[in-house]
Amino acid sequence: MKVLKSKMSKSKPLFVSDELPHYAHTIVHTYSTVVIPLRTGKRGRPRGPQRIVDTDLDYATVHKTRSKGHVVKVERFLVLGEQDRIVARLENSNSNTINTSFVERSNLTWRMMNAHLSRKSLCFSKSLQWLKAKFSVIVAVYNFVRPHSSLSSAKNPVTQAMAAKITEQPWSMDQLLGYPVCCQ
Q1: Which CA distances in Å does 159 have to 77, 110, 121, 144?
Q2: Is 52 left (phi over 0), alpha (psi -120 to 50) or beta?
């Protein structure tokens, strides 16, 4: 058997999402190893390559049952990984249960900062390249320029980048836009 190297080799985070099937497909595609079976020399079509999912991948989904616009039931399902490992990860995190609140909060932030990502908006992007470029600037502003209310005090503004110890003070827009970036 020939094994192609997995794309990601670092420690993997705990992935949690709703049940949209695209998430599972993308996670499995990213965190797996492609195994190509050797040719047997026998007649017939050779077996195709297979994806072997990394054993340390943890992925869970949240299913919300709604009635008349209100959530009446929340179910959590383990898709990939081990229950004990997921429980241990949750004990060391900001959340003590499998939920999508952090992702939903960041999605709301991105939609509020970029009208192209809003639902039912008159804005649209003609080019994926420009949408990605605008989104990159917005993420940089969010992390380096804009102080975060739960990290800051009245006299001491703290950005996400400062909390991660990437920088020592909030950046101005001039500093952010003037920072040299390697383009591909």
Answers
A1: 34, 16, 29, 6
A2: beta
Which position has the token pair 């709604």? 66
Can you tell me whether residue 27 is helix, strand or coil? helix
Provide the phi-psi class of 14: left if phi over 0, else alpha when psi is between -120 and 50, else beta: beta
What is the tens place of the pLDDT at every residue in 132-166?
Answer: 989 999 999 999 999 998 888 878 999 999 999 99
Which residues, at least 6 apart from 79, have a Cβ–Cβ distance to it below 8 Å? Answer: 24, 59, 60, 61
Let me know if residue 108 belongs to a domain. no
Query: Residue 51 is encoded by which pair of tokens?
Result: 């994806």
Q: Copy the structure tokens of residue 52.
A: 């072997």
pTM here is: 0.65
Mean pLDDT, the chain, rounded, equals 86
Range of the domain at 153: 115-178
- Do residues 73 and 126 share a domain? no
